[in-house]
Amino acid sequence: MKISRVESLPVRIPLKPEFHMKSALGQHQVSDYVLIRITTDDGIEGAGEATVMVRWSGETVWGAHALAERVIGPAIIGDDPRDIDGALAKMNRIAAKNWFIKSAIEMALWDIVGKAEGKPVYDLLGGPVRSRDIRGRFSMGAYEVERASRRAKELVSWGFTTIKVKVGGKPADDIARVTAVREAIGPDLELVIDANCGWDADTAIHCIHALEDCRLGLVEQPTTNGDYAALARVRRETNVPVMADDICFDYVDAEELIRNDCCDVISLYPGKNGGIAVSKRIAEFAGRHGVACSIGSNLEWDVATAAMGHLIVAVENMKIETYPGDIYGPVYHETRIVLEPLKIAGPITTISDRPGLGVEVDWELAQSLRCPDC
After folding, report:
1. Average pLDDT over residues 265-269
2. Per-residue confidence (pLDDT) for residue 225, from 0 to 100
3. Confidence class of residue 21 from pLDDT cuts 50, 70 and 90?
4. Which residues pair with 138 in a beta bridge?
5. Burial of 239: CB neighbours in 10 Å, binned 0-12, 13-18, 19+
6. What number does CATH give the domain 123-350?
């Protein structure tokens, strides 16, 4: 079996107005992502998805599309799709970083291998260690107080038991928002915050202490990207578990986080880490050092969400039971681009047991949603 064709399709899907995201990184109202289709010489197709955001990883939809079509795609034609480690090594040799497009290509290879062997990807990763029904948290934007309070009550009515609130802006506004959400959801549900690198260490420590009565369960990425010392300081000087996210893209980042005692939890997902295999390797490394991992999100569609789910189902140290993650992206969007969407009911996302990723892209629909300027 050999790779015979690699296709890249830039697609635009707006978010539903009620799900528009606001964070320290800015506004997110429209998703311009790249879908990948890889075909083998015996006719098997695999799909991948690159949830590129320039303010997040530096990748753009135009660059990711060109890299897939002109650099990586031609380089892997004729290769065996089952050699996923070899594909990752080749991609890393010919292109630095660009994690999301590499992940899209890698997840398409996993999809092919699963279909060829008649197995879901989680079986290829070693088999299930937990249920395919994954309970997630809801990530709420940095809304004004009244809207945040109203939204929090809605989320409780939908069955969510963990609410994440975006912070990282003006401390007084952040403190007021989080306090309002705690009052809205009551004392018993889990409340976590995510600063997306928006605070420095002093501000993070001040805000965490000011929110002591809110009984935070987790503080996600409170300090700037690349500043391991700042993250370690926040962990030392507060009593809330610290999650590293924006600061951890590849395996080397994870090594530095653990070497510097920066965090209690690492947020992983295949897009950010450059592939399912890399996420699995980081999770296993972190587990050997007593650091839990959970799932993060870039507001994925069904293909990348499926890849995230297979990672969760197969990897023991994806501790979603203790630290629920974000796996709700398809619901944020106005259109689902697969023929049989993942089942998402309230906080529960169910991963298919069909071969490969378990989702099939509706390519005719995807073509109709092609980015007009990509």
Report:
1. 98
2. 93
3. confident
4. 163
5. exposed
6. 3.20.20.120
